[in-house]
Amino acid sequence: MDATTARQFYQDYVDTIYHERKVEELGRFFAESLVPHPALPAGLEPGLKGMKVVAASWMQAFTSMRFTVDSFVFQNDIIAPRLTISAVHSGDFMGLRASGQRVNFIAHPHYRLEHHKIAEFWDLPDVMTLLQQIGVMPAPSQSPNNRLETVADRCEPSLRAA
């Protein structure tokens, strides 16, 4: 597969699964023996069957999903996009009740292709930002000089780097 075909494949995947919300179509894009990193939650079947459950849970928790592909790299059968994801938290997510909040966060997934399907993937969404936006985790606080407070700001002065 060349880079142009890989880009079209990936956009078709995003449009079909997330924009059109057709989780049942995952088999068009993922191999039956899919290997996800991190592993699927305990109790789920491995491979494509378990991935369908995970994708369906995201669809239940978030509506009005939009995936914007900010950058796209394809090399050695690896697709590596940088995504901005926008959605409304309208259902339970990780045991958290729907907040009704619109969320915007970044993800950096990587997908390894084999026989024109995703055989392995590494998922790296910015869950901390997502949890801050739905109100379960405190957002970074503002310091008096109107800049984001850092961990170093909270350290004892003697522990701060010079």
* CATH fold group: Nuclear Transport Factor 2, Chain: A
Task: Indicate the radius of gyration in whole angstroms.
Answer: 19 Å
SSE order: HEHEEEEEHH
Total strands: the figure is 6
Write a structural description.
- It is a single chain.
- The chain is of the alpha+beta class and 162 residues long.
- The protein has a single domain (3-159), classed as Nuclear Transport Factor 2, Chain: A (Roll).
- Helix content is 27%, strand content 31%.
- The chain contains four helices and six strands.
- Strands 1, 2, 3, 4, 5 and 6 form a six-stranded mixed beta sheet that branches.
- Strand 5 and strand 6 (117-122) form a beta hairpin.
- It is globular, with a radius of gyration of 19 Å.
Task: Summarize the helices and strands and which ones pair or pack.
Blueprint: H1 3-19, E1 30-37, H2 47-61, E2 62-75, E3 78-89, E4 102-107, E5 110-114, E6 117-122, H3 127-133, H4 151-154
Tags for this model:
162 residues, 6-stranded mixed sheet, alpha+beta, globular, 4 helices, 31% strand, Nuclear Transport Factor 2, Chain: A
